[in-house]
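Technical annex, item 7. During the second reporting period the consortium partners agreed on a shared format for inverse folding records so that results from different sites could be compared directly. Each record opens with the tokenized structure and is followed by the designed sequence. A conforming record, contributed by the partner at site C, is shown below for reference.
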């Protein structure tokens, strides 16, 4: 239980609060930029719909990857990907990884570090999560195209969450290790000798 002495309840509360605020903001914002939403805003939908931007770049990249792997997929509409005429994959809000990106963003925000470091780590983490998600969707398209057997107890959303949170765990560890300054390490080694 060595880790318990490094646990900060305050940090945990801040991390949880910021994650929830970011995630629920995105869910609420999705309602505002969706024409079906009760509070629909055509202006925000047309000019500031970051959810559709995420969806679009995700679909384009997944389509390129799937085609590179030999699956002739294409984008059909704002949130639909197709293979031929009979296979369709709809990219809904939960498919975008916004919850996982919210968690990573919250971790970087509540952690210590200067703005430059935080910005670099945030961009790097978001890009890594984005890549994992692109490959997940592309491989899902390939699996559908090639009729791969499906696992009834573990679907592609679960696999994405496992891969993404494992990646975030490694990023969090690396971020934390990046905080240790070389002079501190040197002093600790010298005092141990």
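Designed sequence (site C submission):
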């Amino acid at each position: 239980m060595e880790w318990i002495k490094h646990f900060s309840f305050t940090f945990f509360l801040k991390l949880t609060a910021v994650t929830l605020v970011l995630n629920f903001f995105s869910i609420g914002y999705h309602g505002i930029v969706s024409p079906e939403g009760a509070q629909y805003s055509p202006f925000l939908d047309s000019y500031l719909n970051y959810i559709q931007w995420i969806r679009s770049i995700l679909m384009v990249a997944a389509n390129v990857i799937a085609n590179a792997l030999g699956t002739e997929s294409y984008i059909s509409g704002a949130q639909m990907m197709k293979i031929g005429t009979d296979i369709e994959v709809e990219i809904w809000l939960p498919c975008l990884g916004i919850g996982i990106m919210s968690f990573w963003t919250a971790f970087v925000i509540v952690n210590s570090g200067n703005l430059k470091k935080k910005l670099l780590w945030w961009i790097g983490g978001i890009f890594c999560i984005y890549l994992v998600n692109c490959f997940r969707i592309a491989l899902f398209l390939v699996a559908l195209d090639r009729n791969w057997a499906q696992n009834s107890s573990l679907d592609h959303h679960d696999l994405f969450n496992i891969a993404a949170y494992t990646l975030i765990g490694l990023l969090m560890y690396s971020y934390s290790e990046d905080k240790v300054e070389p002079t501190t390490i040197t002093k600790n080694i010298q005092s141990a000798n």
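The CA atoms of residues 10 and 44 lie 35 Å apart. The first strand starts at residue 73 and ends at 75. All partners now use this format for quarterly exchanges.
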